[in-house]
Model the fold of this input.
Amino acid sequence: MNASLKIFTEIDRLRSSMTMFLQRLVQFPTLPGEEQAAQHFLADKLRSFHCDVKILKSEFSALQHHPAFSDDGVSFDNRINVVGTWKGTEPTRSSRKEREPDSRTRSLILNGHMDVVPIGNPALWKFPPWSGAVENGKLHGRGACDMKAGLTAAVFAIEALHNLGFQPRGDVLFESVIGEESGGVGTLTTLIHGVRADAAVIMEPTRLRSCPVHAGALSFRIKISGRAIHASMKRFGISAVEKFQQIFAAIEALDRDRHQHYENKIFEFNDNVAPISIGIVTAGDWLSTVPETLVAEGRFGVFPGETTASAREALANCLEKVSAADEWLKTNPPTLEWFEGQFEPGQTSFQDPIVEALSDAHSAVMGAAPKVQGVPYGSDLRLFTEHGKFPAVLYGPGDVAFAHTVEEFVELEEVFACAKVLALLVTEWCGGEFIAR
Ligand SMILES: [Zn+2]
Done:
C-alpha cells in the first residue's frame, strides 16, 4: 500500500473516534477565560500517543510590552496554552533564515484556538449550543467549526501517522491556544516562549480553501458634540445625531472609495476586503432633549500591504474633511481615538513553499487544487508572519459564514478530509519514513 493510501485508510478507521472527540470538545463551554478543562483534555489526548506536551501560561507581565499585544480584559489567572511536540529525527531549524530551500526536513506548526465566542440567545439555537449534536453528517454547536473541528482534524492527523509507525524528520508541533477571538494572546505567548517552525497552518474554517492572506482591523471610537436644548426648541440646538449622519455618510463613502482603489486579485469579493463598520452608537440622555453627545465605535479594515498608521490617517483625514465643510464641526470637531484591538494584516506569498505543499496535499485528497484566496477577517496568522517571521496559511473545515452564529456547525466529511490533507502535508513537508512495527 502506498503512503497516502495507508494514511487515508487509517483516518477513515478513526472517523467515529474523531466525531466523538469533536463532540466532547464542543461540550466544553470554552468561553474566554474558561478553556482550562478542555485544554487539559486535549493535552491528555496528545500524551496518549506520546507527544511531548508543554503547558504554556499566558502572563500579562510577559506580554504587556510586546507591540502585538492587546489586552482583551480577560483575567490572566490560569490562561493556558497547550504545545505538543513530535520530535523529528533531524535537528530543527528554528527560523526561516536558516532554512535550506530544497530541504525535505522542515518543521511545521499546526495551530488552533480553543476559545469560542458567547452563544447569544440560547432560545434561537435549534441544537443546544454545548451539545455537539450530530444530524445528517453535520456536527452542531458553538465552536463546532470555529475551530474545534480544525483542532480535531490536526490531532487525528498526528495520531494516524503515529499509529502507522511514521517517524518525522522535522519537528511536528501542535498548538491549542486561548484568546484568539479577542486578539491573539495565546499564539503570542507561544512566540514569546520561542516556539517556532519553518511554517504554520492554522485550521480556521476556510471550507478547505487555502488562505495565506488576511486583512487587518483596528477598533476606533468617535465622539461628536452638539448643543443640547429642549426638544421643543430643536431649531436652536445642535443635534449630535444629525452631525453623526454626515460623518457616517463620509465614512461609508471612504469605505467604497478605498475598495475602489484596492486592486483585488486575491479576495472573493471586490467590495468586501477590509470593510469599515460602525458597531455601537450611543447618544443623548433624555428623549426630549436634543442630544449633546454621540459616541460611535467601530472597526476599520486594513488592506494587506497597508500599514496600520496609514489606515488610521485615512480615517483622520476623512473626519477633518467633513469638519472643514460644516459650520459647527469646524469649531467643534469630532475626536477620534484608537483603542483595544489593533490588528495588522498578515500575509504569506501565494508562491511560498508551504502554500504549494498544502495545495499538493489537498489535490491528492480532493482530486483538484484548492482555491487560494485572502480573507477579510483577522486571525493569528499575522502573529506568525509579522512577528514570528515565518510563513503561515489558514486552512480548515467549516464555513466562517456560520461561525459566531446560532447555526454554527461543521460537515464531518470536511473534518475527515482535512485530517487526511494535514497528515499528508506533515509527511511531505517534514519528511520522514514509515518504520515497520
Ligand atoms: Zn477562529
Notes: The domain at 3-214+345-434 is CATH 3.40.630.10 (Aminopeptidase). The chain has twelve helices and 18 strands. Residues 240-261 form the longest helix (22 residues). The longest strand covers residues 216-225.
